[in-house]
Amino acid sequence: MSTLLDVKNLGISFGGLRAVNDFDLKIQKEELYGLIGPNGAGKTTVFNLLTGVYKPDSGKVLLDGKDLTGKKNIEISKAGIARTFQNIRLFKELTVLDNVKVGLHNHHHYSTIEGILRLPNYRKVEKEMNEKAMELLKVFDLEKFASYKAANLPYGQQRKLEIARALATDPKLLLLDEPAAGMNPNETGELMDMIRFVRDEFHMTILLIEHDMKLVSGICEELTVLNFGEVLAQGKTTDVLNDPQVIKAYLGE
Ligand SMILES: Nc1ncnc2c1ncn2[C@@H]1O[C@H](COP(=O)(O)OP(=O)(O)OP(=O)(O)O)[C@@H](O)[C@H]1O
Asked: Can you give the residue range of the structural domain that contains 96?
């Protein structure tokens, strides 16, 4: 096993509030890792720090040994971190297929002139992108909805589409922010199978924020618990979930 994500001493304050403090995290390649904790503990802020939405005021973020600390969102995306959001952020007026193609644009290029004039390189790249996007949709059982407007998909399918779009950027690390939010138990069960499938088939490393403890205990191999912006516990899932401090601060709520 080798380390993919290495975060040391990460921190940020908003005015007088220390939202994340002295945060350390190591994730191995192809690991399924969970970040849990009470509301307002700082979990989404950690994602925002890892993806360049916020600049940390202390600490370091290394991805595969590359220093991404303080880099812009677009540079971090190119370096290989992709994410989904707590509140789904799809291009609702675009088709399901086009939503995935937006993700693919990170890697496929044609010039503006080639695009406007529909030159051969544009047509070749478009064809490749359509094929790749359809392959990704198949993985998520969404190919039959390819021509639907994203807004017309049921909620659970929209969440899947967000994951497909994030994967289209060909990331090394996939961050999922509450992927099971708003799902019923059946949908959550399917989602768990799908996350495992993505890890196994794409050899993906996944860090997820989740409140659904069935999902967390069912698929995460390691956990970090945040509380008031600080790491309360870290380690193997069963050890962390049996830690009396974690039960008191979070699970016993
Ligand atoms: N841009 C910001 N400006 C000011 N305060 C912020 C900002 N972003 C986050 N915070 C504060 O930082 C703290 C951590 O918020 P964060 O959203 O990271 O928590 P969370 O653990 O993701 O919570 P939840 O489980 O409810 O999503 C909260 O007190 C929040 O109000």
From this structure: 90-164
- The number of beta carbons lying within 10 Å of the beta carbon of residue 128 is 13
Q: How far is the CA of 159 from the centre of ligand 1 (A)?
A: 22
**What's the domain count of the chain?**
2
Which two three-digit tokens encode residue 126? 């478009």
Split at pLDDT 50, 70, 90, the class of 250 is: confident
User: What ipTM was predicted for this assembly?
Assistant: 0.94
- Give the end of a domain, one of 164, 197, 222: 164
* Residue range 163-183, pLDDT digits in tens: 999 999 999 999 999 999 888
Please give the distance, rounded to the nearest whole angstrom, from the Cα atom of residue 208 to the centre of ligand 1. 16
Is the domain of 176 the same as that of 133?
no
> Is the CB of 155 within 6 Å of ligand 1?
no
Q: Do both 240 and 117 map to the same domain?
A: no
Please check whether residue 65 lies inside any domain of the structure.
yes
- 69 Cβ closer than 6 Å to some ligand 1 atom: no
Per-residue pLDDT tens over the stretch 67-121: 999 999 999 999 999 999 887 788 889 999 999 998 887 665 656 665 666 766 6
Q: Does a structural domain hold residue 71?
A: yes
